[in-house]
Design a protein that fits this description.
Pathway: Porphyrin-containing compound metabolism; protoheme biosynthesis; protoheme from protoporphyrin-IX: step 1/1. It is found in: Cytoplasm. It catalyses: Fe-coproporphyrin III + 2 H(+) = coproporphyrin III + Fe(2+); heme b + 2 H(+) = protoporphyrin IX + Fe(2+). The protein is an alpha/beta fold and about 375 residues long. It has helices at about 35-50, 60-85, 90-110, 125-135, 155-165, 185-205, 220, 225-240, 265-275, 295-310, 325-340, 350-370, and strands at about 20-30, 115-125, 140-145, 175-180, 210-215, 250-255, 280-285, 315-320. It has a four-stranded parallel β-sheet, sandwiched between helices. It has a four-stranded parallel β-sheet with strand order 6-5-7-8, with helices on both faces.
Length: about 375
């Protein structure tokens, strides 16, 4: 079939228009279902097949991906995932679920009646299943909020690609809004600063603070992707919020892949250089990750630490991501509220709205009777 099946519907049972439900779809990158080579291979195949993630001609990349990467990388990556896997599952999944539940509860506490669900761009729960859940719950207005503070074509834009592909196969399309970025949102910056300050209050402060963002090929910047600039702005705002001077902080980029030049300075070489130049203690924080994951817990908390200590450093401390910290949940909830403005979301309805809904339901029931439908 060209179009996906619609959720079960009975005439007169659903309120349409202004009184319909509003949904919030929080989106993160995704994660393997298990820390084993088979699950990792399945996840990498979907992730690395996205043309926005790897901008190499498809025939050439297909050979590299299926002939080399998917035969070599899953075993090593599975071991890395296993080293950080939590009792509840993948760290990214654990923190994303907790954030979703916390935002849902916070919106309810603020008087909103909205449906909040989690979807992953790759893997499970898929965006298709998340959108289906919202539609089955009667949501005719959906706010899509990718949990990527800094916009990139290889992350944020892939979410809109996937959602729009779903809409192309949907008969009754909902009203949609997308959040593009929140790299300079005051609440987000304040939650980052609160996390760092809390860590320093309990553990003391190192000689240098290293702010490590996920890297991208340098070519993306040259072609007009704003990611690098947005990372720099986040860094500047966080430095100011912490009351630091630029010379006390290094802004770097991690997770290089392949031989091409990526955004610089690179994180691990910077850490080694700091150690060789007499910096003995560093605190490392990853502002671009709102939830801890393999890139923070394995790459930064383990691999980068080992590199710094091997180069002569004596103290390396990873500062956890903002995860489900109270300042971040408050900021994320406020961000959702701002983007929901103009849509009816309040749990407490005015008498006029209640009367209007009652009239609308009555009209629908009468129409259903005319069609021979039953309640």
């Amino acid at each position: 079939m060209r179009f996906l099946p619609e959720p079960p519907h009975r005439h007169g049972a659903v309120v349409h228009g202004a009184a319909a439900k509003t949904g919030v779809l929080l989106v993160n990158l995704g994660t393997p279902d298990a820390p084993n080579p088979k699950a990792v291979r399945r996840f990498l195949a979907e992730f690395l097949s996205d043309p926005r993630v790897i901008e190499i001609p498809r025939p050439i990349w297909w050979v590299i991906l299926n002939g080399i990467i998917l035969n070599v990388r899953p075993k090593d990556a599975a071991a890395r995932y296993a080293s950080v896997w939590m009792a509840e599952g993948s760290p990214l999944m654990v923190w994303s679920r907790r954030q979703t539940a916390a935002v849902d509860a916070a919106l309810t506490a603020r008087g909103h009646a909205v449906e909040v669900v989690l979807g992953m761009r790759y893997g499970n729960p898929s965006l298709a299943s998340a959108m289906q859940t919202l539609r089955e719950r009667g949501c005719d207005r959906i706010l899509v909020l990718p949990l990527y503070p800094q916009y990139s074509a290889s992350t944020t834009a892939t979410v809109s690609d996937a959602i729009n592909a779903l809409l192309a196969r949907t008969r009754n399309t909902p009203e949609l809004r997308f959040v593009k970025h929140f790299h300079d949102d005051p609440g987000y910056i304040a939650s980052l600063a609160a996390r760092v300050n809390d860590f320093w209050e309990h553990n003391g402060r190192g000689q240098k603070l290293v702010l490590s963002f996920h890297g991208l090929p340098r070519r993306s910047l040259d072609l007009g992707d704003p990611y690098f600039c947005e990372c720099q702005k986040t860094g500047r705002l966080l430095i100011a919020a912490l009351g630091l001077t630029p010379d006390q902080v290094e802004i770097t980029f991690q997770s290089r892949f392949g031989a091409a030049e990526w955004l610089q300075p690179y994180t691990e070489p910077t850490l080694k250089e700091l150690a060789k130049n007499g910096v003995t203690s560093v605190d490392v924080f990853c502002p671009g990750f709102v939830g801890d994951c393999i890139e923070t817990l394995e790459e930064m908390a383990q691999e980068a630490r080992d590199a710094f200590l091997a180069a002569g450093g004596t103290q390396y401390r990873y500062i956890p991501a903002i995860n489900d910290s109270a300042p971040w949940i408050d900021a994320l909830t406020s961000l959702v509220e701002r983007h929901l403005q103009g849509w009816p979301t309040k749990a407490a309805r005015s008498p006029d709205m209640a009367a209007a809904e009652a009239r609308e339901l009555q009209v629908q029931r009468e129409h259903a009777l005319e069609l021979g439908a039953t309640d």
